[in-house]
Amino acid sequence: MVFITEPNANEIVGVRKVPYSKPPLDTPQTHIAARELDNGARRAEAVARTAQGLKHLGYKPDMIIGHHGWGEMLNLRDVWPDAPMLGYFEFYYQHDRADVGFDPEFPADPLDFPRIRAKNAINHVALNLGGAGQTPTQWQLSTYPDWARPKIDLIWEGVDLVTCSPDPGAHRKTLKVGDMTIRPTDKLVTYVSRDLEPYRGFHIMMRALPDLMRARKDIKVIMVGGDGISYGTAPHRGGTWREAMLAEVGKDIDLNRVVFPGRIPYSTYLAALRRSDAHVYLTYPFVASWSLREAMAMGCPVIGGDIDAVREFIVHGENGLLTPFLEPDTLARAILGLLEDKALTGRLRQNARLYAERSLAMADYLRSYCGLIGRLTGQNPMPAPEPDRGAAVARRKPPSPARPVRRLAVAGV
Question: Is-contact 381 375, C-beta < 8 A?
Answer without folding.
Answer: no
